[in-house]
Design brief:
Shape: globular
CATH topology: Glutaredoxin
CATH superfamily: Glutaredoxin
CATH class: Alpha Beta
Number of helices: 4
CATH architecture: 3-Layer(aba) Sandwich
Order of helices and strands: HEHEHEHEE
Low-confidence stretches: 1-8, 11-16
Mean pLDDT: 86
Strand order of the largest sheet: 1-3-2-4-5
Radius of gyration: 15 Å
Number of strands: 5
Strand content: 15-25%
Length: 128
């Protein structure tokens, strides 16, 4: 394998399967459902910028260490494509917009948020 493929990955259409079964977060109305669901089970929202290498690195690291499949429901937001949803998350859960950003919602409120290098799947243990 070449040096560039080792560092940047292959550019083919084949993608490795993610360890996280992400629910896509694309619509504003989903936030009402997230608030309701969070009373039964914690919700995780990962806000990702598809143009940012730091965001991509944080996402990969998070996915590689995530091991809470039945304990938390993970939602994935492409914040560039769905910016109004990202803005509403900041307002609804009273968190400052960051990218990348991990937010944990429990009982309708953000109980944890982290961004950039502070994103660590092991921090989720406290909220499950």
């Amino acid at each position: 394998m070449s040096f560039f493929k080792t560092i940047f990955g292959e550019s083919g259409s084949e993608k490795p399967e993610a360890k996280v079964n992400w629910e896509p977060l694309n619509e504003l109305h989903q936030l009402e459902e997230i608030v309701k669901q969070s009373t039964e089970k914690p919700i995780l929202i990962f806000k990702h910028s598809t143009r940012c290498s730091i965001s991509r690195m944080a996402l990969k690291q998070f996915e590689n260490t995530f091991d809470f499949h039945d304990k938390i429901t993970p939602y994935f937001l492409d914040l560039l494509e769905f910016r109004p949803v990202s803005n509403e998350i900041a307002a609804l859960f009273d968190v400052t917009h960051q990218s990348p950003q991990l937010i944990v919602v429990k009982d309708g409120k953000a109980v944890y948020d982290a961004s950039h290098s502070d994103i660590d799947s092991q921090d989720l243990i406290r909220y499950i």
